[in-house]
Amino acid sequence: MSEDKQTIENTETLDQLPEEETPVDAPENANAERIAALEAELETAKQDILYAHADTQNVRRRLEKELADARAYAATSFARDMLSVADNLGRALAAIPAELREDDKFKGLVTGLEATGRELEAVFGRNGISKIESVGQPLDPNKHQAVMELPSADAEPGTVLVEMQAGYSIKDRLLRPAMVSVAKKPD
To answer: For 83-141, how does the pLDDT look when each residue is reduced to its tens digit (9 = 90+)?
Structure first.
């Protein structure tokens, strides 16, 4: 019986022992927490690097686009100024009466003015400047500036009847809208 008594005493002793923290687990637990914290910091740093890299790529792309636009549209203000020269040359050619065009004294002058007009159009073409076709087209507020309405039984309302000043575009952008008269229903 002494053996049973000993077992009971041992059981009681086990029940009364305080819970122990194993000294070996404490440093391992601290190390695991530190490793988890470092891994979280590493993950945050990786995310920050990815965001910075994406931001850098976006800035580079935006700058490349701005540079391409600057190259393509650098001559825009100069081209606008040249349009008035083209308009005046066109008006001068249109103002020459037919009898003066046939006169030998003025034939060289007329031929020179016409050649200058063709050369100006060729230069515009090489630089991506093109005339906007307006007459007979429906009014497009992105290309035309309606100055007046004319009653017309022949044309559909909103159709461009007369172009008073030609419109131009440079590449895919509007350089100057065409000033036009638009058809309206007759009264």
So the answer is: 999 999 999 999 989 888 888 888 888 999 999 999 999 999 998 899 999 999 999 99
Neighbours of 114 (CB within 10 A): 14
Structural contact between residues 138 and 146, judged by C-beta atoms closer than 8 angstroms: no
CA distance 64 to 170: 20
Phi then psi for residue 125, to 5 deg, are -60, -40
| DSSP-derived secondary structure letter, 154 | S
How confident is the model over 6-59, as pLDDT tens digits? 555 555 554 554 554 545 456 788 888 999 999 999 999 999 999 999 999 999
* Helices assigned H by DSSP within 21-132: 25-72, 76-95, 98-102, 104-126
| Nearest-angstrom CA–CA distance, 149 and 162 | 10
